[in-house]
Design goal:
single chain; 207 residues; alpha/beta; TIM Barrel; 10 strands; 30% helix; globular
Length: 207
């Protein structure tokens, strides 16, 4: 199986184009003011408008209200939504777009219950649980906590980088991997060489 790749926390056109050129399937745009990788709808629109075809655009939200999400959707042509807060299943499904539900994983997290509750999601994005932080921490969680019988696609996140992504894909066999801080030279600034090495790691895992 080919493992898909999403490069998240894109803040610059040149980084989005580099990700696309290297073969990333999707880019993530963060609409959460608490993140150092946050973009405005206007910034996001310029990035999306510059993309070539067949690159999925993903909007990330954390406890935004419905009006805020709709305002972004009015301004930015997104393909997929990603929710990292305490959003309910009905809220996530209420915008007419497919969505991912992010889960911060630690010992005791019942991923089977999440899969049942968010059965309308396209998949679960699994990230590391870090107190008070909703993502982009660079922390890895114990992949053994992922049930083998999870009945929906897994997007593996949390501390992935060029050095560990091949191992991660071989062990977890996720539908996709999601990376942000692991391919950066600074917060919100992607490093093309790191992105290329990350893509190589993912491809090597499929050999």
């Amino acid at each position: 199986m080919v493992t898909r790749v999403k490069i998240c926390g894109i803040t610059r056109i040149e980084d989005a184009l580099a990700a696309a050129r290297l073969g990333a399937d999707a880019i993530g745009l963060v609409f959460y003011a608490g993140s150092p990788r946050a973009v405005t709808p206007a910034q996001a629109r310029t990035i999306v408008d510059a993309l070539p075809p067949f690159v999925v655009t993903v909007g990330l939200f954390v406890n935004a209200d419905a009006a805020e999400v709709r305002a972004v959707l009015d301004a930015v042509p997104l393909n997929l939504l990603q929710f990292h807060g305490d959003e309910t299943p009905d809220f996530c499904a209420g915008f007419g777009l497919p969505f991912l539900r992010a889960v911060r994983v630690r010992a005791g997290t019942d991923l089977l219950q999440y899969a049942q509750e968010f059965h309308a999601a396209k998949g679960l994005l699994l990230d590391a649980w870090v107190e008070g932080v909703r993502g982009g921490t660079g922390a890895v969680f114990d992949w053994a906590l992922i049930p083998r019988d999870l009945p929906m696609p897994v997007v593996l996140s949390g501390g992935l980088n060029p050095d560990n992504v091949e191992q991660a894909v071989r062990r977890v066999r996720p539908w996709a991997v999601d990376v942000s801080s692991g391919v950066e030279s600074a917060k919100g600034i992607k490093d093309a060489r790191k992105m290329e090495a990350f893509m190589t790691g993912v491809r090597n895992a499929g050999i």
